[in-house]
Amino acid sequence: MPLNNHTPVLIGTESMVCLYSINGKQGWTMNKRMIVLAVLAAFTTAASASNLSGDEYKAGKDKIAAEFKAEKQRCDSMAGNAKDICVAEANGNEKVAKAELEARHKNTAKAHYEARIAKAEADYRVAKEKCDDLSGNQKDVCLKDAKAAETRAKADAKASHRTSQLNNSYADKRQDINADASADKRDANYAVAKEKCDSYAGDAKDQCMSDAKRRYGK
């Protein structure tokens, strides 16, 4: 390609890539602004790139639909709570698969975060249905356990999503985010512990509650 006085030229070495422009009789001079723009453009392109082609995305959606239909048909042969669990699993698997497909297709932090949230919610719905096989305090504890597991999963997903948007200069903010996630999980675990204490009475229950409060800082 013929070069004129304003033709940009990219020169690469092992340690750096420098962008110069020919400046007439003055020779070669570095164009720092163009270097910055080139680097930002490269990162932007990489971040926004899709991992799936249009055909792959459509094939993924078709596969999810077919698998969901097959799972629902399997559930139709069941009855009672077993059927409820099967339907919850089928619905959950479909929602998670769709969210994960979107995450692969969009390849954004938000899409990956939403996929993790979908998984947490799907697991919770299935766990709740399984708790219906129990009764009394065992069922209450089961439901609290299920909710605590969802809370922990969502807290981790939220913390990961928020910290991914920060760089190393925000160390204090990262600590705040992690502290918030820990607090959410601690509250959920405390709720489970309290429910378990309800299976006791008298001094044993009081001791159980005291231990739970001490363990979770209440």
Instruction: Report on the biggest sheet.
Output: 3 strands, antiparallel
Structural class: mainly alpha
Strand content: 5-15%
Biggest sheet strand line-up: 1-2-3
Count of all domains: 3
Secondary-structure element string: EEEHHHHHHH
* Rounded mean pLDDT score: 79
The helix tally amounts to 7
Radius of gyration: 27 Å
Percent of residues in helices comes to over 70%
What oligomeric arrangement do these chains adopt? single chain
Low-pLDDT ranges: 1-49
Q: What's the shape?
A: flat
What is the strand tally?
3
N-C termini distance: 73 Å
Describe this structure as you would to a colleague.
With 218 residues, the protein is mainly α. It has three domains: 8-47, no CATH class; 52-133, no CATH class; 147-218, no CATH class. Helix content is 73%, strand content 6%. It is built from seven helices and three strands. The protein has a three-stranded antiparallel sheet, with helices on one face. α3 packs antiparallel against α4 (109-131) and α5 runs antiparallel to α6 (171-197). The N and C termini lie far apart (73 Å).
